[in-house]
Amino acid sequence: MTRTPPNFAVIEAGGTKFNCAVVSADRDILREQRVATTSPDETLADVIAFFQQARVSGLSFEQLGVASFGPLDLNPLSATYGNITQTPKPYWSNAALLSRLTDALNCRGAIDTDVNAAALAESRWGAGIGAEVVVYITVGTGVGGGVAINGQTVKGLIHPEIGHLPARHAVFNRGCCPFHSHCVEGFASGTAMASLWGQSAETLAPSHEAWDAQADVLAQLAHSLLLTLSPNKIIFGGGVMQVSWLLPLVITKLQHQIGEYLRLPDNTTLSDIIQAPGLGTRSGLMGALALVCD
To answer: For the purposes of burial, counting CB atoms within 10 Å of the CB of 84, is it exposed (0-12), middle (13-18) or buried (19 or more)?
Structure first.
């Protein structure tokens, strides 16, 4: 008797919304819903209700993958494994995320940061196929970065917090991060751009000086990553990166910053390394799947 391939419950848990879905082993989205991120009690109750209703409709699953905003406790031996730790997101510090969901849904679960999971998904199915080291950067409300090496995400002391690497800005002396005066997130996130320039990124004209400064900050980030992790791919996603002119400008700035120092393999250019997501806006959701789908 042939066994029907399993379905998987997946969540891309963000600071604004939780994207929830039941996905087949072939990565077909069978049922999907977005839940607003409010308080843990309200949000998780709505998430649990979605998956319970999916089961009632005949979409069974035994595993749950969660790709979440952080910081997270990712130590499997910790009593608070799967919890959000100290976050500026109101009400969510120390929230039990994974255990509350798996207990309510009576299933096994796996969790990682949204950007680590996205890096893993891109390495399996997206722009990072065949690459040994893949870095995924999201530039949206905040700036986050995840790393997948040989098909495994990096979880060392805690997990990568790439968005808080130091950076300089061509116009402003101080960024908007509440923790650091000069970090990538404080200069280049969508939140920071709106605060520094007095208008949201999507309303800034292509000729506005903000984009040149933005590309310079992101090129500094890519420069640091190239010289520390030696990635085959650095993938830039997130809402701010949706404008067509930004990624080519980052590559131009990066080439200027590196100069002739870094010798790339034959037939490889910075445009081969610095790329947009192969999975489009689905990198995070597919990342949650990658955590539980072999």
So the answer is: buried
d(CA 242, CA 225): 21
pLDDT of residue 96: 97
Rg (alpha carbons) of the chain, rounded to whole number: 19
Q: Residue for token digits 């004209």?
A: 205
Handedness of CA 200, 168, 185, 122 (dihedral sign): positive
- Tokens representing residue 175 in the block: 């960024």
Q: Collect the ranges in the chain with pLDDT lower than 50.
A: 1
Number of Cβ within a 10 Å radius of residue 48 = 17
Tell me if 200 is assigned to some domain. yes
Torsion of CA 91, 96, 97, 102, to 10 degrees: -150
Contact status, residue 58 vs residue 22, Cβ threshold 8 Å? no
The Cα-based distances of 248 to 169, 204, 219 in angstroms read: 19, 17, 11
**How many whole angstroms separate alpha carbon 188 and alpha carbon 27?**
32
What's residue 2's pLDDT? 53
Interatomic CA distance for residues 112 and 288, integer angstroms? 8
Instruction: Return the structure tokens found at 222.
Output: 């890519």
CB atoms closer than 10 angstroms to residue 154: 17
Structural domains counted in the chain? 2
Closest CA to 63 of 18, 108, 118, 115: 108
The answer to whether residue 131 sits within a structural domain is: yes
Can you give the CATH number for the domain in which 206 is found?
Answer: 3.30.420.40
- For 256, the 3-state DSSP assignment is helix
The string of DSSP codes covering 199-213 is S-GGGS-TTSHHHHH
Domain that holds residue 95: 7-113
pLDDT tens per residue, range 186-211: 999 999 999 999 999 999 999 999 99
Phi, psi for 286 (deg, rounded to 5): -70, -25
